């Protein structure tokens, strides 16, 4: 018997091909199975009563429904955020964050264990044991939450690839996960409700524009000062100039507005000259700017500090002079270390 494959590793289209080409069955059989899995959330072929018994047995031998295990969950004091630690089959752990806001639920998913970019302000970059997640481990995070929350899991939600890892450094599996999430026979989530956040992997930005032009792009730019960025995002190959060009090209190809994310630090980082440089560089680019006040991390550089309220206001003042749409993100879940940049599993 061949090794069982994880059902969630196949895109709905891939499963349909398997049914029609390998099993020589009609297309609607695939539709029936996908309906059981993604609509009725039944993860057991023996319960799929409208399928022939021998087919159920074949499928049962061939596929398993395995999702990451919830090993730990932490709720923020105001119950708006739940940080879930999940264990993968090789015992490595990742984190997924469930956020309930006025505008609805957002699920923040991880794409890698650790991250090779090693931004100096990010806890994920300090983890050991880097590896890419498989597509089934990416979508499995959502299924694990679904199972954990039962009736409390919402019908509609947004997905952001802003958990652990650099998604565009794991592009094949991340794209496969996008296929599963966006397919009408899969999770059926509108591409516009999905945000891909990247530290600026240029090749990946072009591939995203080509393959998933409706997915929202967020680029974690932080600064336009080449030297400073090299210090903050030490393993990034691309220059700020190349990243900005990729941003312009993405907008041109897709006709969509993008977001620049900036971790906002205190002190000299919010100087007038630095902010004007930023405003000027982004002039003419169809974008929002989303600033995230720095959430200090353990073992982070001492000179990086969280900005004061006044510094955040000053940032907004200067940037709005450059006619940018500015939002400052209220980091959810700071009290449970679930805020941006605070995701890391200790001693992995
Ligand atoms: N690797 C991707 C996505 C995951 S990081 C990326 O870098 O975009 C998600 C967001 O959290 C990024 O915008 C990142 O810059 C931000 N972030 C990382 N560490 C942070 C910290 N300590 N405080 C605030 N934001 C942080
Ligand atoms: Fe990786 Fe993003 Fe963290 Fe940088 S901020 S180390 S790219 S996860």
Describe the structure.
With 348 residues, the protein is α/β, with parallel strands linked by helices. It folds into two domains: 5-64, DNA polymerase, domain 1 (Orthogonal Bundle), CATH 1.10.150.530; 69-336, Aldolase class I (TIM Barrel), CATH 3.20.20.70. The chain is built from ten helices and 14 strands. The chain has helices spanning 12-22, 27-39, 53-62, 135-149, 171-182, 202-211, 226-232, 240-254, 272-282, 309-321, and strands at residues 5-6, 63-64, 69-75, 81-87, 93-101, 104-108, 112-113, 131-132, 157-161, 194-198, 216-220, 258-264, 287-293, 325-328. Strands 3-4-5-6-9-10-11-12-13-14 form a ten-stranded mixed beta sheet, with helices on one face. The protein has a two-stranded parallel sheet with strand order 1-2. β10, α6 (202-211) and β11 (216-220) form a beta-alpha-beta unit. α1 (12-22) packs antiparallel against α2 and α6 packs parallel to α8 (240-254). The longest helix is centred in the middle third of the chain and has 15 residues, at 135-149. The two termini are 34 Å apart. The model has no long low-confidence stretch (mean pLDDT 93). The structure holds S-adenosyl-L-homocysteine (SAH) and iron/sulfur cluster. Iron/sulfur cluster (SF4) binds at residues 115, 117-119, 122, 124-125, 165-166, 199, 220.
């Amino acid at each position: 018997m061949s090794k069982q494959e994880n059902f969630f590793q196949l895109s709905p289209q891939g499963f349909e091909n398997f049914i029609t080409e390998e099993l020589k069955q009609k297309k609607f059989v695939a539709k029936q199975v996908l309906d059981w899995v993604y609509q009725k959330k039944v993860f057991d072929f023996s319960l799929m009563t409208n399928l022939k018994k021998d087919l159920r047995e074949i499928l049962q031998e061939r596929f398993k429904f395995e999702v990451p295990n919830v090993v730990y969950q932490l709720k923020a004091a105001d119950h708006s955020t739940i940080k879930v630690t999940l264990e993968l089959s090789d015992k490595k752990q990742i984190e997924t964050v469930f956020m309930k806001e006025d505008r609805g639920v957002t699920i923040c998913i991880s794409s890698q264990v650790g991250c090779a970019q090693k931004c100096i302000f990010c806890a994920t970059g300090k983890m050991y044991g880097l590896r890419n997640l498989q597509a089934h481990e990416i979508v499995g995070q959502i299924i694990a939450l679904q199972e954990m929350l039962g009736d409390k899991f919402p019908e509609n939600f947004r997905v952001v690839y802003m958990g652990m890892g650099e998604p565009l450094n794991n592009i094949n599996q991340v794209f496969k996960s996008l296929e599963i999430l966006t397919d009408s026979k899969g999770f059926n989530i509108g591409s516009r409700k999905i945000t891909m956040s990247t530290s600026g992997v240029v090749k990946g930005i072009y591939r995203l524009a080509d393959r998933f032009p409706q997915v929202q792009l967020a680029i974690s730019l932080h600064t336009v000062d080449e030297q400073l960025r090299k210090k903050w995002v030490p393993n990034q190959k691309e220059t700020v100039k190349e990243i900005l060009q990729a941003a312009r090209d993405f907008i041109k190809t897709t006709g969509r507005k993008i977001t620049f994310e900036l971790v906002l630090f205190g002190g000299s980082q919010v100087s007038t000259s630095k902010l004007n440089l930023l405003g000027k560089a982004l002039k003419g680019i169809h974008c929002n700017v989303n600033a995230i006040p720095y959430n200090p991390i353990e073992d982070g550089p001492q000179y990086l500090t969280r900005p004061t309220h006044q510094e955040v206001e000053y940032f907004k003042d200067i940037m709005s002079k450059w006619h940018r749409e500015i939002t400052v993100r209220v980091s959810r879940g700071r009290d449970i270390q679930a805020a941006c940049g605070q995701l890391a599993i200790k001693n992995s």
